[in-house]
Prior knowledge:
Mean pLDDT: 97
Number of helices: 0
Strand content: over 45%
Radius of gyration: 13 Å
Distance between the termini: 40 Å
Order of helices and strands: EEEEEEEEEEE
Shape: globular
Structural class: mainly beta
Amino acid sequence: xxxxxxxxxxxxxxxxxxxxxxxxxxxxxxxxxxxxxxxxxxxxxxxxxxxxxxxxxxxxxxxxxxxxxxxxxxxxxxxxxxxxxxxxxxxxxxxxxxxxxxxxxxxxxxxxxxxxxxxxxx
Length: 122
């Protein structure tokens, strides 16, 4: 079975940085697409960044582009999200997800991690 486990969340001050990790096990060859989502209380789950295991291209939504960087270590089966210049609006539960093709929609992803809380506050 596929298992995704996020880690690295925590409390950080505005302007600070944090790096999230997502370790993946049991991924099928067809599940080549990985994405980060976040969800704040009372809001829809939001796609924020994505990449492929086998392609270097990265994608990011406008609200985080230039501040967040998605990367991966294929040998470690680990996906990362480096977050810089954090704002209070970045406060949310962050999830990693695996899918079979490029998408920004929650429904198109097959497997999800449990989420890790990121709180940006002074």
